[in-house]
Structure prediction request, 409 residues.
Amino acid sequence: MLIVEDYLPIVGKEVIGSLHAKARKLYGKRVMHVNATYYGGGVAEMLQTFVPLMNNIGIDADWRIVPGPVDFFNITKQFHNGLHGQDFDLTEEMKKLYVMNNGDFATYAKLDDDIIIIHDPQPLPLIRFYAKRQPWIWRCHVDLTNPHSDLWEFLAPFILRYDRVVVSHEDYVQKDLPNEHVIQHPAIDPLALKNRDMEEDEIALHLFKLGVPADKPYILQVSRFDKWKDMPGVIETFKRLRDDFDCRVVLCGSMASDDPEGIQIYQQVVEDTIEMRESGDVILVTDASNAEVNALQRGAAVVTQKSSREGFGLTVTEAMWKAKPVVSTTVGGIPLQIEHEKTGLLSAPDDFEGFVRNVRRIMEDPGFGAELGRAAKEKVRTDFLITRMLSHDLDMLNDLLMEGVPPRV
Ligand code: UDP
Prediction:
């Protein structure tokens, strides 16, 4: 189990000391996180290390998952897409099932902690089923630049009951909501299996076991199978480059338990790449362990994240921490992380030619790629490590508890 002092060599004494100081008034406070999946996406990824660390620093933090039938997750996936701006037909039936499933969970989930933190839209309506005795925070990890308007009107009455709305980017602040907003950038754990340092021979062993030969450089994208992540666009990019560079593409994908669309997109990628997989030009990796994802990222010549929408993009942070050149798009939280030509390369999401050109630049000049990678790692060290997120959360909890909220009953 990791303790806060394990991060000392990475972030220094001042940061660790300030975390302890900020935690002092929060000792023993009970904080409950609720989301919809244990694995397969950025939120689960963060909570896995964040919740134990909160405990280590003296807070009584816990984590619950809202369960539900596949119908519920089909609906919440449409809501997720709708918050990202996609049009769909919001029916009364969907609204009913969404609220009812949360109501069922509330009949036995005893959310009586000092602070409740609800992540993303799936458990958002839970708040309606509790007599409020403590601050509730809605932590929305989705890109809210242009949410589906009917969906937004439907969700607003739930959101209004929250004491803070936390979003990943200032562009996601909703002007129509009087709620106090907080902007918090997500973060990675540099000591987690996914990100810890790895020796060359360990990297090689993982790649060998995953069937990734060491004979050529490879372009990598790690993503959920999700239409906004544009895995097919990465394959198209490879097709444009393969005559000039002897390389291959590795797509490492997962399906979160709360994401029923994933399997369809996965199947589509499988069908579209039959020949290229047979020839070894495309390697598809599924169900990779955290250590395997780590090795894949470290072994790559270029890491892409060709998203057309993105909440924040932890895969970008992870690759940057490994000092990799990342080629990505100007969506969501990605430009907060990558400064074009300094810490990676960016193009507009609809600029396919620009994206191909950027990957080409790295393939042509690995020295330039290494330079971008070095700067990328320092950017993550200062801005996107879990210790910074913990510090920020402690500020918010102190702030909320000092507002004179009555004690738990
Ligand atoms: N991930 C993984 N295996 C995969 C695909 C993704 O472990 O096959 C992880 C990835 O390393 C990252 C998270 O899932 O930690 C994705 O987070 P991100 O913020 O990039 O996107 P989200 O899935 O939350 O939209």
User: Anything to note?
Assistant: The mean pLDDT is 95. The first strand starts at residue 30 and ends at 35. Residues 41-42, 45, 194, 222-224, 252-254, 288, 293, 311-315, 318 surround uridine-5'-diphosphate (CB under 6 Å). The chain is about 45% helix and 15% strand.
